[in-house]
Specification:
The protein is 31% helix and 13% strand. It is α/β, with parallel strands linked by helices. It has two domains: 31-154 and 270-295, Rossmann fold; 158-263, DNA Methylase, subunit A, domain 2 (DNA Methylase, Chain A, domain 2, Alpha-Beta Complex), CATH 3.90.120.10. The chain starts with 7 loop residues before the first helix and ends with a helix.
């Protein structure tokens, strides 16, 4: 496994998790040859909660980095990744954004890929978080990825992922946030108490709206902790503590880096389900190729 990342703090996190010694670098013009290429462009320019600038190639927005993936594949020459996976927010399907989504399919077809997409919800893969994301899977040699083969999991009880005896610094005390409790749901502008699941984990929790708030009794509520956000993205506590050690939290404050990296991640169990099926297709293709070689000997 390899990666390229320009954000210095994210590189430190990857290095801590996977015992790498990489340095920050831009993906623009980078040369690599993976069998499976996973990419994503920053979602802010597509998101309902973001800027809605879109991802036009000529605009050079953050989300236009999706087109750099096209250029990387083009620069590989005859060799190409067997599978390309792209993930982003549902906003890419909005009527003012979908032209770029369709263009991406056209460009991948030009490069020899058959593409298919599905909106996947983390709750269907065991994680009590309403996180709906568009996944596009592009495969060579005319293969069509069948999303119906993905194996779901029963959703965990969110109480099992919440901490006990949480520090008072997470208790909501801001008058503006207290006023917003139960006003409107999700990204409508209010704060919603968490019941069976939380809403999309974003890069910040100390804001309105956020991913949901936890009732702590006496009509008081608290924010999700950094550890809870990582758990709700499917990470093991061991992974979280490796990263927390790399990005220490100052006394009496919350850790913006840990929140941001959780919000920018992809839910682990969703990727695991995709990889399980993608690897089957690749293995079947290799087996078939070996059989053909034997027949021609």
């Amino acid at each position: 496994m390899d990666y390229v990342e320009i954000d210095e703090k994210s590189v430190r996190t990857y290095n801590a998790l996977y015992e790498h010694i990489h340095q920050p670098q831009s993906v623009v013009g980078w040369n690599l040859k993976p069998d499976i290429l996973v990419h994503g462009s920053p979602c802010q320019d597509y998101s309902r909660a973001g800027t809605r600038l879109g991802g036009n190639d000529e605009d050079k927005t953050r989300s236009s980095l999706m087109w750099e993936t096209i250029r990387i594949i083009e620069n590989m020459g005859d060799w190409k990744p067997k599978v390309v996976i792209w993930e982003n927010v549902k906003g890419v399907l909005a009527k003012d954004m979908i032209h770029n989504f369709k263009k991406y399919f056209v460009e991948m077809e030009r490069l020899g890929y058959t593409s298919n997409y599905e909106v996947l919800d983390s709750r269907e893969f065991g994680i009590p978080q309403k996180r709906e994301r568009v996944f596009v899977i592009s495969m060579l040699n005319g293969h069509w990825f069948d999303f119906s083969t993905l194996k779901g999991r029963p959703m965990k009880n969110i109480d099992d992922l919440l901490e006990r005896n949480v520090d008072d610094k997470y208790t909501i005390k801001s008058p503006s946030m207290l006023k917003a409790i139960n006003k409107r749901n999700g990204f409508g502008g209010g704060l919603k108490p968490i019941e069976e699941y939380c809403w999309t984990i974003t890069t910040k929790q100390n804001r309105c709206p956020n991913s949901g708030i936890v009732p702590i009794g006496n009509e008081q509520y608290r924010l999700l902790t950094e550890l809870e956000c990582w758990r709700l993205m499917g990470f093991e506590d061991e992974d979280y503590y490796k990263v927390a050690n790399e990005h220490p939290t100052r006394n009496n404050t919350t850790n913006g880096t840990l929140y941001k990296q959780a919000g920018n991640s992809i839910v682990v169990q969703v990727l695991e389900a995709i990889f399980e099926e993608v690897l089957k297709v690749i293995e079947e293709e290799v087996t078939q190729h070996e059989k053909i070689q034997v027949l021609h000997r």
